[in-house]
Write a structure and sequence with these properties.
Length: 169
Amino acid sequence: MEILLVPNEVLRLKAKKLTKITKADINVAHQMMDIMIKAPGVGLAANQVGILKQIVTINFEDKENDKKANYILFNPSIIEYSAEKTIMEEGCLSLPEQYADVERPKQIIIEYTDENEKLIKKEIDGYEARILQHEIDHLSGKLFVDYLSSLKRNILIKKVKKLQNTKKR
Ligand SMILES: [Zn+2]
């Protein structure tokens, strides 16, 4: 398992909904969790490792608000967004070393299936809501740079390509 970088086309494809969560899917999620923590990253979507299934892993610590979480989401979807929005700086394991401010709703209500095939619905706020919106976007082939102007987006993507070329040499 390897993290794909822009402009890899797989990052632009839609991940499929799982009709049943198999042991193999749970195994994929655990591998994703490992690779994400090693990276290190706070979230990873299956598209980013070349698997077009709706699987997301999250691992973060928000010391300021004394919150931490580590969990797997199957078929996550956002069913409600708050009208209130916030701007936060985002980065992405598929665009190493690139960061930009992105505006998104502050709170969301999400629905997903957990490892025990239990349907979970919860309201999420702050940093965790930010990570989840970013990861759930990946499942539909969307990247955080899509919220920027095309000029800025192209600059960041070019920088990733350049970075890869210098690493290869
Ligand atoms: Zn990302």
